[in-house]
Amino acid sequence: MAEKERPSWDEYFMDIAFRVATRSNCLRREVGAVIVKGRRILCTGYNGPPSGITHCSERGCLREQLGIPSGERRELSRAICAEMNAFVQAARYGIAVEGADIYVTTFPCSYCAKMIINVGLQKVYYVEGYPDQLSKDLLDEAGIECIQMKKPVGI
């Protein structure tokens, strides 16, 4: 009997990141993140408002209403980035992420890049780009390897 073809570890974790993104209720972009160390998932996160705050899908998007382009004026968003939510979950439950890697559906913004550097992540795996040159510059200067992957099959 032929052995079934299995996804690589990177493909497996990125597939999970896309699945996590389905929990997002952002009106512009669904993003999922998975933090992994030693081939074990430490925590996940998706973009959306803080716990207990009205979802954007119910209240509307101020950035959308003001016609603000993607990647600009992120401080006006009610949402927390997927990476931030993953870091918050790790902190809340006492999970150390130093030395881990992150699989995220979209390249991190500069806010998240700064956090990625300070929490001590080693690599960023991503599929979709994001219009934030500062983020790329920060991660490069910090020596954090960024690896673009193809979108998982069937997503």
Entry keywords:
single chain; 155 residues; alpha/beta; five-stranded mixed β-sheet; 19% strand
What strand order characterises the main sheet? 2-1-3-4-5
Strand content: 15-25%
Largest beta sheet, briefly?
5 strands, mixed
What proportion of the residues is helical, as a percent range? 25-40%
Number of helices: 6
Distance between the termini: 29 Å
Number of strands: 5
- Please identify the structural class as seen in this structure: alpha/beta
Spans with pLDDT under 50 lasting ≥5 residues? none
Descriptive report:
- There is one protein chain.
- With 155 residues, the chain is of the alpha/beta class.
- Helices cover 33% and strands 19% of the residues.
- It has 6 helices and 5 strands; from the N terminus they run H-E-E-H-H-H-E-H-E-H-E.
- It has a 5-stranded mixed sheet with strand order 2-1-3-4-5, with helices on both faces.
- Strand 1 and strand 2 form a beta hairpin.
- The two termini are 29 Å apart.
- The model has no long low-confidence stretch (mean pLDDT 92).
